[in-house]
Each structure stands twice: as C-alpha cells, then as structure tokens.
Amino acid sequence: MFELIKSKKTLPFMQYSKPASWLSMFLIVASVAVLSINWLNWGLDFTGGTVIEVGFEQPAVLPDVREVLASNDFSDAVVQHFGTSRDVMIRLAPREGVQGEVIGTQVLESLQNADFGQVDMRRIEFVGPNVGAELANSGGLAIIIALICILIYVSIRFEWRLASGSVLALGHDIIITLGIFSLFKIEVDLTVLAALLAVVGYSLNDTIVVFDRIRENFRLLTTATSNDIVDKSLTQTLSRTLITSGTTIFVLISLFIFGGALIHGFATALLIGVIVGTYSSIYVASSLAIKLGISREHMIPEVVEKEGADQASL
C-alpha cells in the first residue's frame, strides 16, 4: 500500500488534545455568535422569487447575459442553462411592491434590447417564501435525522462513547461551516445543503476508519493506555487520511475555479467541511471518546459461556 508518511514512531496526537479542544470550543462559540447576529444569507431556493425561462435565437453566453441584467438593476439574477444552450433560466429575488409579471417583462425587454437577436419568453413563475421556508425546515430536519441514525449505527457497531464522539464531531463540522458562511455572507442554496449532507458522510467515513483501528489496537495492545492506543491508531491511519483529504481538496479547488458561479457555494461548503472534518476526525471524535472514559474493557465483547461447556472439557 502507498503511504504518504512512514513513521516508525507513534505521533503524540493526544498530547495536543487540550489546546485542540480549546480551539474547537472557540470556533463553535464564535460560529454560534456570528450565526445569531448575521444568520444565513438564504438563496432563492429558500426565500422564493421569480423564475423566468427565455429562449435565444443563438446559443446564449451566460456571462454576457449576467452583464446585461446587472446593467439593468438585476445584479442579483441567477442565470443558468436548462435543456439546450439556447434555453436560459433566470431566477430573481422578490421585490417589494413589484409583481412577478412586471419583473418578467422588464427582464425580457432588457435582453431584447441587447445584442442577442430574438429572445422569447417561455415561462414565468413566482415561488413564494413559504415554499422556501419549508425547504429550509426539511433540510435541517434531514441533517438532524442523519445524525441520529449515525449515533445509532456507530453505537451498535462500536460503542456509545465512540458514537457520541463521532456525532459531536459531525455537529462541530456543520456548525463551523455554517459559521463561516454566515461570517462572509455566502449565499446558502440547495447545493450548499447537499454539500453539508456530503460533509456528514465524508467526515463519518474518515472517523469510522480511525475507530476501526482503535478497536483493533485495544484488543492487540493489552497493556497500553487509551491515549497511547489512540495515538498509535491515528498514526497508522494518517497517510490514508491525508491522501484522501488531499485528493478531495484538489478536486474541489478545481470545481471552485472552473465550475462556474452556480456551484461556488457547493464547492466552498465541501472545501470547508473536508478541512474541518479531517481535523475533527483526528482530534475531536477520538479525544471526546477518551474524555468519556473509553477503555479496553468497552471494546472487547463479553464471552458468553455455552451451557454444558464445563462438562465437555472434562
């Protein structure tokens, strides 16, 4: 197997668990404070707005369409292709006192007056804020249900102390990611929600790999302390963690740079989540399990004596 880091010595990860815990507490408190002040910059998927579909005579160049709309006071327009390169969907935030039909007419006139040739209106639709609020509630509920299912799964597969550590680490990742989005007022849409759910799965997978090695080492190293076993397990899985995270981050940077404005939020959420999730799988999940008192006795299954076993051995 290819190893990025070959260390003959066990790295003392848990030696720095205390400052790492303080760092995590600071980031969580700061994220909650920022969220309580700024909340989130909800996108059109959650706030509602006007959806306009137009057809162009020639293939539409989206940056040119955005530039024309911005020059006509529609700088907040979300522009994307749907179907063919001649079909464009435009989404606009609701404007007080202005009906969707009026907004649609203004957008169509702006495009027709530009050098795009013939532009036809295909569809105009207004999405109310109630639908957006329902999507936000459903998304939050999906994340909570996912965390509860993870808690049950890891408790059955490993032990409740490890399960608690993993779920708290996942909550740590999501809160910090949302805090950064709130701080920089990055728009939160359905792609960001999908990214958050992907972060939960990615971080959990990384944590499960570490927990598997911790369980194995608890059974092999009978005289080692919990801190030593966690340090050895993290050292053994460090190469895998860095290779997986590094390749994922490389792909996400490519998506962020070349993927276009529509998936910037998705790529940004995954980038933050992967970096924070890698850190939390090393320090948060394992260190929380130690603080909850994980020991060798908890990781070794109880031996159930079969009836008549004593007589059979005579």
Care to give the gist of this entry?
The chain has 314 residues and is α+β, with helices and mostly antiparallel strands.
Jot down its keywords.
elongated, 65% helix, two-stranded parallel ribbon, 11% strand, 4-stranded antiparallel sheet, 11 helices, alpha+beta, 314 residues
Shape: elongated
Unreliable segments of 5+ consecutive residues: none
**Strand neighbour order, sheet with most strands:** 3-4-2-5
| Count of β-strands | 6
Biggest sheet descriptor: 4 strands, antiparallel
> How far do the termini sit from each other?
47 Å
Structural class: alpha+beta
Number of helices: 11
Helix content: 55-70%
Oligomeric organization of the protein chains: single chain
Strand content: 5-15%
Mean pLDDT: 81
Radius of gyration: 26 Å
Order of helices and strands: HEHEHEEHEHHEHHHHH
Give an overview of the whole structure:
With 314 residues, this protein is an alpha+beta fold. It is 65% helix and 11% strand. It contains eleven helices and six strands. It has a four-stranded antiparallel β-sheet. Strands 1-6 form a two-stranded parallel sheet. Helix 8 (226-258) runs antiparallel to helix 9. The longest helix is centred in the C-terminal third of the chain and has 33 residues, at 226-258. It is elongated and about 80 Å long. The two termini are 47 Å apart.
Describe the SSE topology:
Elements: H1 17-38, E1 41-42, H2 44-47, E2 49-56, H3 62-71, E3 78-82, E4 84-92, H4 100-113, E5 119-127, H5 129-157, H6 160-183, E6 187-188, H7 190-220, H8 226-258, H9 264-291, H10 296-299, H11 309-313
Helix pairs in contact: 1-6, 5-6, 5-7, 6-7, 6-9, 7-8, 7-9, 8-9
